[in-house]
């Protein structure tokens, strides 16, 4: 098991890594919640495994926040400035490993403040651990609405829950039906999702709104765990001709959807997916990704701003310069999670975990990512999801209408009519 830290603790990381490579047991000095002039945050992050793409987005978001806070003078508590640092381990994209590593962070490394992992499944495994030890966890990548039905006091999420990711696609479909002189209940939907907590919630939200409009779900399929083939679903799509195809399976699911819909020349009026940006569908698939409708927690064209990064556009520019790619929302919400801790430390003027927890609960913060305000369950109730569509190789916000940059192109041109 390898320990990773931010640059301020690089030497410790290198020592541990070398010892692990030699198969030696490693005994590290326990980290206090504050060590000298440094506040240590802890996290289990998917460096390897099926969530490694989004795990990197998560880590990069954390690291950029730490770098920015430190270069602005750090966190101010009781007249003293403190730097931030992150101690993290590779959870290998598995829930059991994530829970084990957070136990280690708390019990062996002395971590008192935890940042969330990537995915609802890992967050669901870790939350009982932080709750048991009364350690505040702020997360931006566990959207399962079931996380907030357990009465947790120490779990806080800056993002919208996953059942809201593609509800807006159903609303758009209803709007298009009316424009075509049809009733919303005339529209038919196909669903293909991964069998994990996040995607099951996406499905639940789509089905709930479809029922509200009286729409019929004609295909309701689970994608195979390895997310390498959805041909059986697409064969049914060709035969049944639904008006909307919903695909959810994290970055691998988005890549699979675009690739196979293109390869098999499947004509569907609207293809709506999650994780388009982190899957880099425009960069990897070019024209094949055109007209895809994508859910997002955030977009850099939104008019949010804060004292740390300025506007959403400024954040995106800084992130791209630092890491060499455009930030997906997973990175942005991870950065926002760190900002919530910073704000709470400074309002609490204390490092006592209970005082910090109470300060987090009272958060009312504007960030480049959007407003953050938690309800009693720990959900952020101050921001909305957005949908964008790939138009001429760019993501254009098409919903909600108050933020729309462009009109939705519907129906998607058939493959024989595309340029």
Question: Keywords for this structure?
Answer:
single chain, 419 residues, alpha/beta, Rossmann fold, 2 domains, 7-stranded mixed β-sheet, 5-stranded mixed β-sheet, 38% helix
Task: Write up this protein.
By secondary structure, the protein is an alpha/beta fold. The chain has 2 domains: 3-160 and 301-373, Response regulator (Rossmann fold); 164-296 and 385-417, Rossmann fold. The chain has helices spanning 10-21, 52-71, 95-107, 120-132, 167-179, 197-213, 231-240, 250-263, 281-285, 312-323, 329-348, 353-361, and strands spanning 3-5, 34-35, 38-45, 75-77, 80-90, 114-115, 137-139, 155-157, 188-194, 216-223, 244-248, 271-273, 293-296, 305-306, 310-311, 364-367, 370-373, 386-391, 394-399. The strands form 5 sheets. A 7-stranded mixed β-sheet has the order 10-9-11-12-13-18-19, with helices on both faces. Strands 1, 2, 3, 4 and 5 form a 5-stranded mixed β-sheet that branches. Strand 16 (364-367) and strand 17 form a beta hairpin.
């Amino acid at each position: 098991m390898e320990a990773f830290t931010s640059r301020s603790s690089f030497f410790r990381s290198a020592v541990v890594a070398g010892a692990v490579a030699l198969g030696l047991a490693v005994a590290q000095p326990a980290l206090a919640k504050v060590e000298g002039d440094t506040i240590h945050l802890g996290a289990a992050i998917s460096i390897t495994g099926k969530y490694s793409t989004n795990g990197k987005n998560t880590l990069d978001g954390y690291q950029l926040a730490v770098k920015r806070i430190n270069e602005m003078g750090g966190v101010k508590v009781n007249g003293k400035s403190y730097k931030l640092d992150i101690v993290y381990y590779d959870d290998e994209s598995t829930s059991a490993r994530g829970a084990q590593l957070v136990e280690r962070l708390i019990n062996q490394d002395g971590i008192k403040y935890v940042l969330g992992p990537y995915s609802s499944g890992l967050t669901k495994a870790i939350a009982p651990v932080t709750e048991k030890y009364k350690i505040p966890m702020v997360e931006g990548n566990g959207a399962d609405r079931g996380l907030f039905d357990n009465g947790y006091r120490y779990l806080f999420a800056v993002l919208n829950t996953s059942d809201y990711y593609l509800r807006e696609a159903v609303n758009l479909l209803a709007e298009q039906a009316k424009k075509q002189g049809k009733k919303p209940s005339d529209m038919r939907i196909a669903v293909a999702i991964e069998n994990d907590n996040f995607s099951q919630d996406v499905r639940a939200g789509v089905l709930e709104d479809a029922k509200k409009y009286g729409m019929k779900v004609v295909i309701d399929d689970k994608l195979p765990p390895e997310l390498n083939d959805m041909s059986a679903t697409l064969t049914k799509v060709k035969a049944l001709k639904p008006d909307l195809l919903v695909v959810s399976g994290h970055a691998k699911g988005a890549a699979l959807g675009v690739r196979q819909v293109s390869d098999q020349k499947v004509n569907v009026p609207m293809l709506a997916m999650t994780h388009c940006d982190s899957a880099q569908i425009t960069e990897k698939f070019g024209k094949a990704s055109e007209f895809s409708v994508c859910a997002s927690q955030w977009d850099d064209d939104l008019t949010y701003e804060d004292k740390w990064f300025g506007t959403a556009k400024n954040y995106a520019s800084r992130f791209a310069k630092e890491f060499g790619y455009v930030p997906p929302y997973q990175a942005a919400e991870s950065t926002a999670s760190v900002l919530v801790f910073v704000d709470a430390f400074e309002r609490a003027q204390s490092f006592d975990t209970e005082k910090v927890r109470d300060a987090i609960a009272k958060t009312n913060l504007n960030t480049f990512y959007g407003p953050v305000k938690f309800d009693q369950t720990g959900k952020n109730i101050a921001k909305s999801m957005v949908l964008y569509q790939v138009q001429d190789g760019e993501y254009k916000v098409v919903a909600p209408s108050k933020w729309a940059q462009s009109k939705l192109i519907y129906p998607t041109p058939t493959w024989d009519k595309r340029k």
